[in-house]
Specification:
With 345 residues, this protein is an all-beta fold. 0% of the residues lie in helices and 51% in strands.
């Protein structure tokens, strides 16, 4: 990737810090909670643990037979969970690179894996099932009554409430309950979900090129339509005001403050020559980064600047984007297996 020129408006640059090669399409990318490490999973299985500052490869974990699908760091940082097409969930000791605990996902293919905010529970979605384990690897719950394959799961920020997305249903679970504590029904196929940081809203990106926006207090849902492609990219800003959506070559950002997005038009940010494949707001800042199949990476400041702040170009399509915990470093993964880290200046 090339370095970027400074924006005259905002004085922001993205300076390349390091690069590494993991050999195949980067299917998952995640920073350790302290920002000291960056884990990158290749679609064919191996998981590479890099030093977050220098890019030095610390460990290469074998990952999963037939391919790795997802990774998640425990909030305490010592354990990395992974899921794969072998039907397994694996807990890795990141210090030694050893397999700590292997778990049965409950189906032939495990799609998602994620730790609870406090790190006390691990959730995984496989087929029509969602399973929960404690840190000792003991099965706590199995929710196997989903109407179809579970496409995504996500913990409500700061709680032990877990949302799952499947065809026709959003379900909310609590580990103390054997059945869903709440169901939100809609006849459609949901691909990805995202809680607002304040927990008041839940958004889904959908197979029919729409975004659904749920108001959790009332159960009311709104639909944003007109996207040219399936919506697989969602990101909230840390204030819960802005929701960024993909579903085409132009990132759209909805302002959900005040009375919400009903009857409004989104901010649209033009710059990509092909579909967006990744969107990520900073965890505590206002900046949004987008990446696309055109290999472009573009930095935006929604609500303040319509034009991009900075750009750079990769030699293949962007597959993963991840901000470091301090929001000062940007991790990128590509179709060709490159991992790059840029420093925000």
């Amino acid at each position: 990737m090339s370095s970027v020129s400074k924006s005259s408006k905002a004085g922001v640059t993205l300076a390349q810090r390091w690069q590494a090669e993991i050999g195949d399409h980067v299917i998952a990318l995640a920073w350790s909670p302290d920002g000291a490490g960056l884990a990158a999973a290749a679609v064919d299985g191996p998981i590479t643990l890099c030093d977050g500052t220098t890019g030095r490869i610390r460990q290469v974990l074998p990952g999963h037979g037939f391919g790795t699908t997802a990774i998640s760091w425990s909030p305490q940082g010592g354990i990395l969970a992974s899921a794969g097409q072998d039907g397994k969930v694996k807990l890795w000791n990141v210090a030694t690179g050893e397999l700590h605990i292997p778990l049965d996902g409950g189906a032939a293919w495990v799609e998602r894996v994620t730790w609870s905010p406090e790190g006390t529970l691990l959730a995984a979605a496989a087929g029509k099932k969602v399973r929960l384990w404690n840190t000792a690897g003991q099965l706590v719950r199995e929710y196997g009554n989903h109407p179809s394959t579970v496409a995504d799961i996500q913990w409500k920020p700061g709680t032990l409430e877990l949302a799952s997305a499947a065809y026709g249903q959003l379900a909310l679970f609590h580990p103390d309950q054997a059945e869903p504590v709440r169901s939100l029904n809609w006849k459609g196929s949901q691909l990805v979900l995202a809680w607002s940081p304040d927990g008041k809203h839940l958004a889904t990106g959908d197979q029919d090129s729409t975004v659904h926006f749920w108001i959790m207090k009332t159960g009311e849902d709104l639909m944003m339509s007109g996207y040219p492609a399936k919506v697989r990219e969602l990101s909230w800003d840390h204030t819960s005001r802005f929701l960024a959506t993909g579903g085409g070559a132009v990132p759209c950002v909805w302002d959900v403050s005040g009375k919400g997005p009903a009857g409004t038009k989104p901010l649209q940010f033009e710059g990509h020559m092909a579909n967006v494949t990744g969107l990520a707001f900073q965890q505590s800042g206002p900046l949004l980064v987008s990446g696309g199949t055109d290999g472009q990476v573009i930095l935006w400041h929604p609500g303040r600047h319509k034009q991009s702040l900075a750009k750079t170009q990769a030699d293949s399509g962007i597959t993963q984007i991840a901000w470091s915990p301090d929001d000062q470093r940007l991790g990128l993964g590509t179709e060709s297996g490159a991992v790059r880290v840029y420093v925000l200046k």
